[in-house]
Amino acid sequence: MSFSDRAVLWLHIAAAVFAIGPGTAAIMSTPRYIRRRNTAVVGYLYRITRIYAVASLLVLVFGLIITELLHDFGKPWISASITLYVVAAVLLVLIMRDQRRAIAALAAAEAPAGAAVRPEKSAAAVGGAGSSADAGTAGPPVDPAADPPVNPEDVAEATATSDLRTAAVERGRIASMAGVTGLIWLAILVLMVWGSNS
Question: Which of 25, 85, 95, 147 is the most buried (most CB within 10 A)?
Fold first, then answer.
């Protein structure tokens, strides 16, 4: 193996250590902070995941270069490793999507109580009551027992509960996909070590 081959191999290994390791740690930590409802940390972990997911492309690029230099494209462990990398990359995209959804749900759950009430619904309820009163015999009388007024606190509480439920669903999805992604990275590592020694 020439010096240039060794240099590309070391770049490949360095990219794997410094890109895949921190990115995996970020996605594994995300469910814990979603459960704690810490929107700021979840947002930070999302940015880390995005940066290191892009940086992990260097692992693929240097891997393809060293494989071409060593003429190893015909070996089955190379094909298996590339396929597993593509699957892991797709999972990373799905994880980042779910991180964004969890951040939006947590932010909505933390919104002030007054912001949860839709103004157009309140205006329609008030306008409907007023128009019935003004119309006199034009419409049926409004029965307060049949259509109770909307309590903004109840609406806010229901909305927050729904948002937290959404965040919990995203937490479960992220946890499961993070576990699968970690196993894929481990399988690629085993293939690399086994293939290089065979």
Answer: 95
